[in-house]
Amino acid sequence: MLQKILSLVILTAILSGCKTTNSNITKIALPEFPIAGKAVAQELSTRNCSKEQCPNLNNWLNEIYLFKLKYEIYRQGLK
Prior knowledge:
Layout: H1 2-16, H2 38-44, H3 55-78
């Protein structure tokens, strides 16, 4: 029992010297990766898919590109 109390006193003494610090990470929200969905999956199942034939796929690819740009901004905020 005395050994447990002594251990707790030592641990408390060690931890009292610790302090919390603020990180340099900016509070930018991490962008969410766009999900393709059923419509894109159906369009991907076709062999020939042009911009006019597959508008959902085209929109999803544009959203992925936008995600990439937002993620790069997020990464720059971490530096």
